[in-house]
């Protein structure tokens, strides 16, 4: 019962912009100027294969063509390349990796 009440309380507070900013993750740049930002990708739990899948969905074959790749707060990946600036329809599934 306590978990349900806590979830309802957080959901109610999330409607307020100041509180929402505390809960929502900011967008993360994962590709910049044709280079993977591997440290950011590792921190966000996104692997290169998932990013390459998003690039192919945008019609981009090579990372060198990408000006900017952003992992959005909703889990989608936005790719900005010459003549292309759209967001993937599929969400990235976050997973924990065993070490």
Explain what you see.
This protein has four helices and five strands; from the N terminus they run ααββααβββ. The protein has one domain (25-99): CRO Repressor (2-Layer Sandwich), CATH 3.30.240.20. Strand 4 and strand 5 form a beta hairpin. It has a five-stranded antiparallel β-sheet. It has helices at residues 2-13, 17-23, 38-44, 48-57, and strands spanning 28-32, 35-36, 68-71, 77-81, 84-87. The radius of gyration is 16 Å and the shape is elongated.
List keywords for this structure.
single chain, 99 residues, alpha+beta, CRO Repressor, 5-stranded antiparallel sheet, 4 helices, elongated, disordered C terminus
Poorly predicted segments: 95-99
Number of helices: 4
Q: How many structurally independent domains?
A: 1
Residue-averaged pLDDT, rounded?
Answer: 82
Number of strands: 5
Q: Biggest sheet, strands in spatial order?
A: 2-1-3-4-5
* Main sheet characteristics: 5 strands, antiparallel
Q: How widely separated are the two ends?
A: 35 Å
- Structural class call reads alpha+beta
Anisotropy-based shape? elongated
- CATH level-3 fold name: CRO Repressor
Strand content: 15-25%
Please render the helix and strand layout as text.
Layout (H helix, E strand, L loop, with lengths): L1 H12 L3 H7 L4 E5 L2 E2 L1 H7 L3 H10 L10 E4 L5 E5 L2 E4 L12
């Amino acid at each position: 019962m306590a978990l349900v009440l806590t979830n309802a309380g957080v959901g109610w507070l999330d409607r307020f912009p100041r509180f929402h900013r505390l809960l929502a993750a900011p967008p993360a740049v994962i590709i910049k100027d044709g280079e993977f930002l591997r440290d950011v990708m590792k921190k966000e739990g996104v692997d290169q294969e998932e990013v390459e899948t998003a690039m192919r969905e945008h019609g981009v074959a090579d990372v060198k063509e990408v000006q900017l790749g952003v992992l959005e707060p909703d889990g989608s990946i936005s790719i900005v390349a010459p003549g292309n600036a759209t967001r993937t329809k599929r969400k990235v599934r976050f997973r924990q990796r065993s070490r």
